[in-house]
Amino acid sequence: MKRFKLVSHTLLLGLFLLAGSCTEEFAEINTDPNNPVTISPSLLLPNAIQVSVDRYWGHSTRFQRLNIDAAMCWIQHLARNIYINSEGDTYEIPITVSIGTWENLYNSSLVNLEQVIELAGPGGQYENVNYEGIAMVMRAFTFSYLADAFGPIPYSEALKGAAEEPINSPKYDSVEDVYAGALEELKLANEKLSVNGPRVDGDIMFNGDVLRWKKFANSLRIKIANRQAAKKPAESRAIMQEILSSPATYPIFTGNDDYAELDHANVIGSRNKMFDVFSTRSDWNISKTLVDKLLELDDDRISVYALPLSDGTFVGLPNGLTDVAASTISASTIGQKFLEPDAPSILMTYSELMFILAEAALDGDISGDYMDYFEKAVSGSFEQHGLAMPADYISRLGTVDKETLMTQKWIALFGQGIEAWTEYRRTGFPQMPTPDPRAIFVNEGVLPTRIEYPPSEYSLNMSNLEQGIQLLGGADNMRSKLWWAE
């Protein structure tokens, strides 16, 4: 009996082990390597970066192009010569611009960034401080972009649909609170990012160069702090001074080799989106406002921004003209540099950072000579386009006050229409000329101050949307001013 019991127990143990082995083998057999349960950060990160950049620089789908159709026309870098009534130039855009911007940034970019942070964070399946830090930088960039476009947005409760306690109807947070969160996240990202830390794959922006991510994080943090400086001066000054006083801890852009941009290749699906748009359609010309200012200053950047007519002259198209009126004018089109399929999509440049520091110095928010920053900003813009700034260029500008500074920044931001639009809304500069008498503008003639919330928020998140509109302090239209606006 004893022997029987021993054999029985041994047999029972063997059956348990066999069952466990079979279960493991069953799991292995039934786990599809082409459809993994979790996706690694190296596969999530590229799409997240690409979508954020695409929606900022130049999406190629018609009726969804916030930068090309709306912002670049509103800020009078470009002007439309056809379809002006429905695609931006008359201060009117289809609601699909709001839908495409909102849904793609939330549902494609931010969702993937949130997954990267969860997977790469402490205790995550792919724990890696550099993946985590990169995703935090891009999340701060994307949320601040959404706030600059719409105003109050779902932020603190956003992206919680798959949480243990899911939130499917997130509350809205004010622009002030979104900025506070982004500033905190960028500081933490800089602390986490380790130049000598673990390797990162799938980084389509900086190819795993962690120092460049740290520079972008700190430069972006300065930009957000400066943008809110008129509303929160003490806090903003402290942030900028903290960064500038400790360059080893908080590296920033220091020359034209430092920038945040996405490079492209001449391969279908990887091309510069402006190439995809402008190489197939001729619906845009350079705005008369920009051409006239560049000609007035004898500014060589006109040869980069615009193509000359057959007689070698540069002519701009007035904004807001009807299709019939626009058809009577031969005007310059966008320059060849922006038509190259491998031209980069730009998020932030050294020149832009120097303009920010020049403004901060002029306003007394940081120490230093604002003219030194200003000259670096302007010369950096010329150098960015392969040009040398003429020795007498700064003297041509006369007294460099806030308007002069911001007008030069507007010139330098050509291509970054959303950024130029935001800076105009914040400062009121540059002063826009009196409209052409043939021009037709809707939106009560007001250059849009924001874009409207998408219909999905009205149908799926109405109670919280109402709270967001209260935080906005005005109606959900394109005339209500944002928190930081002039």
Account of the 3D structure:
By secondary structure, this protein is mainly alpha-helical. It has helices at 2-29, 41-57, 66-74, 95-120, 129-150, 175-192, 210-227, 233-245, 273-278, 288-296, 302-305, 323-326, 350-362, 370-384, 393-396, 402-412, 417-427, 455-460, 462-472; strands at 78-80, 153-154, 172-173, 259-262, 284-286, 345-349. It has a two-stranded antiparallel sheet. It has a two-stranded antiparallel ribbon with strand order 2-3. A two-stranded antiparallel sheet has the order 4-6. Helix 2 runs antiparallel to helix 4, helix 5 (129-150) runs antiparallel to helix 6 (175-192) and helix 14 runs parallel beside helix 16. It starts with a helix and ends in a 14-residue tail after the last helix.
Domain count? 1
CATH architecture: Alpha Horseshoe
**Portion in helices:** 40-55%
Please write the string of helix (H) and strand (E) elements: HHHEHHEEHHHEHEHHHEHHHHHHH
Side-by-side strand order of the widest sheet? 1-5
Label the structural class. Answer: mainly alpha
- Strand fraction equals under 5%
Number of separate strands? 6
Tally of helical segments: 19
Q: What is the approximate shape?
A: globular
